[in-house]
Structure formats: C-alpha cells, structure tokens
Design a protein that fits this description.
alpha/beta, binds zinc ion, Cytidine Deaminase, domain 2, single chain, eight-stranded mixed beta sheet
Amino acid sequence: MIELNKEQLQTILTHAESTYPEECCGVIFGHMYRDRKTVIEIIPTENAWNGDANNFSDDDVNHGKKRRYTISPQEMFQLQKSARERNLNIIGIFHSHPDNPAIPSEFDRNYAWQEYSYIIVSVQKGQAGDVNSWVLDDDSQFQQEEIREL
Ligand SMILES: [Zn+2]
C-alpha cells in the first residue's frame, strides 16, 4: 500500500497534464515500512529520454517521449543524495501514459527496480484520469498496489 495526500496526488496530475502529449516522470520521496509506503514529497523531474544516447532499438527511439521516459543518472544521483540528507528514501517513480491506460508496458517492466512503487497516471486528451500504483513481485511481474489517499 502507498499512502499519499491530495496535494501530492495533485502534483502528479498537474505535471502529467503539463507535459502532455509527452510522458512526464518524477521521483517519490518517503518512508517505507514493510509493504507500507508513505509519501513525503513528490519531485517532478525532466523526461531525459533520448533514444540514440543508448543502445535501444529503432522502435524505442521512434516512440520518443510520447511513449518513453527516463530520469537522467545524474539527476537520480542528486535526488538520492538529497533524500538521504533528509532521512528519506526514494520509494518510487511516477510517470504518465498519454492516451494510454495506467498499466505498465513491457518497457516499464524491463527497467523497473524491485521495491519501488511505480505510479502511472493515464492522461486522455490532456486530462489526467486513472492513477494506479504497481510493484514488482518475486517473479518480476507487476502487481497492482493499493493507493490510499490521506
Ligand atoms: Zn510507462
């Protein structure tokens, strides 16, 4: 289960709508106690997706930021540092699916880390809609996680 308040949820929705029709992304700072995560802060980041900087297939490159997202390693490093300084952890990543359902893609699964929550927001025609959270199970398959709005 992941707990977040209205304001934090709104931060995700606003970021998702502002980057439409491209995917947005960001990290989630918080605390983790067993299977229960509590969000402390939502940090929107730049979608640093740049297919040709990496060894991805043409298909990946062609989809561009409308279908892919990435957080640059430098930014991730800085965020990990600032989380630590505040005695927080990065407990997950959020991103949007423009004109697609809030369900992880195969690409999302391949690049997902264990223990992180993956919050996905569907944005239909510029309007944020469904929000789901996903975590990998022991077989590296995504399972939906309950979102509790505080
Ligand atoms: Zn995705």
